[in-house]
From TrEMBL, chains A, B:
<dbReference type="InterPro" id="IPR015421">
    <property type="entry name" value="PyrdxlP-dep_Trfase_major"/>
</dbReference>
<protein>
    <recommendedName>
        <fullName>DegT/DnrJ/EryC1/StrS aminotransferase family protein</fullName>
    </recommendedName>
</protein>
<dbReference type="InterPro" id="IPR015424">
    <property type="entry name" value="PyrdxlP-dep_Trfase"/>
</dbReference>
<dbReference type="InterPro" id="IPR015422">
    <property type="entry name" value="PyrdxlP-dep_Trfase_small"/>
</dbReference>
Amino acid sequence: MNPLARFGSATTAPAFGGELPLGCDPLLAEPSPLPESCLAFSHGRAALRWLCERSGRFDCAVISAYTCPTVPALLEKIGLRLRLVDVFSADWEQAVGSEKGRLLVVAPAFLGHEPAVDVSRLAAAVGESGLVVIDAAQTAFGHLSFETAENTAVISGPRKCASLGDGAILRMHRVSEEERARVKRLPWAIEAVAAKLAARSLMACRSPENEPDALAFTARAEAAWPDAPHRVSDSGLWRLSWLDPKAHADARWRNWKALEQALGDHVEILRLPGGTPFNLSILVEDRAAVLARLHAARVFATALWPNARRRHDLHPRAEDLARRLVGLPIDQRYTEADMLELAKRVRRCMRR
Amino acid sequence: MNPLARFGSATTAPAFGGELPLGCDPLLAEPSPLPESCLAFSHGRAALRWLCERSGRFDCAVISAYTCPTVPALLEKIGLRLRLVDVFSADWEQAVGSEKGRLLVVAPAFLGHEPAVDVSRLAAAVGESGLVVIDAAQTAFGHLSFETAENTAVISGPRKCASLGDGAILRMHRVSEEERARVKRLPWAIEAVAAKLAARSLMACRSPENEPDALAFTARAEAAWPDAPHRVSDSGLWRLSWLDPKAHADARWRNWKALEQALGDHVEILRLPGGTPFNLSILVEDRAAVLARLHAARVFATALWPNARRRHDLHPRAEDLARRLVGLPIDQRYTEADMLELAKRVRRCMRR
């Protein structure tokens, strides 16, 4: 029994959301090593940058108009031309066909679900000089669940979906021993990992008194992730090897379904097929007011990518999501009973 | 049940020593606030510097020749003349009598035990313009157990003796509301605290795979403590309020006695009265070899202050301790059975 579990205040409702606390992940009985075709980095951008550097210079990146703005910022910084495509659009192949030079396509496994684009057709369209990378940064185990071929790759984000300090996995069709050795010689992101683990350890106290410091550490971690390639920490890799992929996915789907059912018809829910859900996304009008009421009810829901790099005229769906999407937590720390309580609070905050 | 408790390897002996893991402290049923006469800082040096700044300029500091070298370094940096006195020496009053100007006496509660000097006589000797501060940085609760008077103070070090990220307490005879407000406005040591909590969270996995990263975080934390006054983090203060002083002291004395008995006559043990032991200190010849054997046996014992600012001719006792002292862990994470296992390993390492 962890004595920290005794911490907590009876007078304050439990919080939903915020940093995943240390120790919340379902574990295997024995650790399971990473597949040979995988390389482990500190975080998604580090993996993406490595992928760009190891593959030689791309000329243009075809990316979603609704993604974390650090992704287009990084690609521009390393000299790629950007071509934005609206989310859920059929325009990907057309965009690929109309761009010149070596192409990098970043195809989102949006919110952890199946890519909405046909990856093998895109891979054929970019040709041998191009590359399609499935951006599964919102999954813990996309590197196990999405297929790769000669000119496709996957980047997953276990650090975002499990209580790790760091960890993003790049899966490719083949990894040479020489490349593996080069990644092992990279530095690790000690400052960001320290802040992240500090935030998670305070969240594990499950007490409001620790939340402001936890938030400060989270902000510090986000600011400290470097653009340059960094490997995963040794402890991060070891802890990743203990995570149970099936129990992880089962818990998230169980909670997603419980919350979906409990929310009923009162809320507009984004429903996407396959994969493992990162959150349960709802679409609301007057999001700022809803978020404020949710926060007052201790539901630390987030507006996802309000600053996504879209153009409202060219990317109407991205614009809509960037303005209205709210992510509700359905992760492995929660039970179905928690989801009923969460639904109650969400419905109350929507009614006003 | 914390799932991290399942981590660990059956093939490797458990480790002794190293960073206190998160969650190892005995807790109260209800939190207990700090006494009114206390101010909470990030770490001992921050408290000491605040004490010097709030008291106006001291001319000279009378300190032990056997103390952490960061203490004389700080006092010199802020312009005090240093007068070193040998440990366990009767020379303190004579040193005070022979120094001119406003005096600050740093009287050690050495290894958590009772001060070997007579604090009230020293306080009389330094007069109204001087100050005697009991350096109880090797205790979690020296601010509760050592008495203060008009020109005496205590600095305790809960961060060193409990699984906190930060926390050093300055107890004075009186604290004004204005001074309390000024301390609250100080920054907190976010970088050091992040690294410390990261190290502790990895230590809580109780697995050798995490130890190298934990050590890296510990080193980073030690390098990151600022000289300037910093307040304690809000979460550090809150966590401190939950610690059980009596159960803490009982566990340390229970372990100290169990280890002392199990070590028997094979080892030279430093025995000091009162207080709460920081460790069980033994004195060994050829310390480097003994430490290497202990580390190989996964006993992460430490040489205490090999770089203490002493002069071997003037401070023979400090010289002896700085050369021969090894601190063995007896803290609250251990049971009596652990102490028997620790004694076995220590005796094996001493016999060679």
